[in-house]
Amino acid sequence: DVVTWNMIISSHAQSGDVAAAKRLFDSMPERSFVSWNTMAAAYVRNSDPHSTKGIFDRMPLWNTVAWNTLITAYSQVGHFQTCLQIFYSMPHWDVFSCNYVITALSNLENLSAAISLFDSMPLRNVYTMPMWNLSSKTAMLQALAQSGCLDEAEETFHSMASSTVNVDMVCWTSMIIAYSIHGSIDRARDIFDLMPRRDCVCWNVMVGAYAQNGATVDTLRAMLHHGIPADHVVFNSLLFSCGHSGLVALARESFVSMRHEHSLEAGLDHYTRMLGILARAGQIEEALDLLQAMPYRPNDVTWTTFLSA
């Protein structure tokens, strides 16, 4: 039956075999809304807006899911102006439509239009439509933060925190990023300290924020020894930030501590970053010693980093 066809098409699409999904779709004796939307979503996963539009044009009827799928297809490849054209052609909007377009408008640096759309959205009452409120405010918060409108972003953030809507990790991390990018490291740390829980992403952002804003070695060392979930990603971020800020001593200490304090074997990417840090600091002999001692064969990135530095 149609349900079985749809399940098999979806399975092929999720595994990346869009051609097989298309062959099955073309062979279907009858198709439902789900069939059309599933095939369109397969092209979206494949970052193919042209084929998504082709399926959309062939649909016997267009529901909101179909319109949103088309917006997603063009948004993924950065065609934000096309997203707006599609949005304003829609007979009806839902939360997903509005959120996609708020993001598109912010990417087009048209923040005033994004704010206007957000303010005009229906059913943004936190009691009657809490999920609408959460997702739309999250999109608006990210748009404000990316645009550097820190006061407006903070107002949106605190309105979410004081309501019945739970603030998710994306919102917390977006605020930390916004403050750190614009040099407000104390405000970034305030948000970080208020977080009910912290994942590796927010730790990475906070460590990077301290390093890029010229924090002392002692400050970063304290963060490492007070709860940071030390893993390869965290140390990669830390070395990147140390290199960006010229913190050679902290970079060296962190690199050595991977094995001795955290039982982690440094990967080629860690060695490459450390080589670049040492070479840029003029410590060529130490960099050469590290290059000869590392248990990996240098690749093109390693050589380019070392020689450029």
TrEMBL record:
GO biological process: system development
Swiss-Prot/TrEMBL PPR repeat ranges: 1-35, 63-97, 133-167, 168-202
Database matches in InterPro entries: PPR, PPR_rpt, TPR-like_helical_dom_sf
Coiled coil: none
UniProt KW keywords: Repeat
Domain of life: Eukaryota
Pfam families: PPR, PPR_1
Stated name of the protein: Pentacotripeptide-repeat region of PRORP domain-containing protein
Species annotation: Selaginella moellendorffii (Spikemoss)
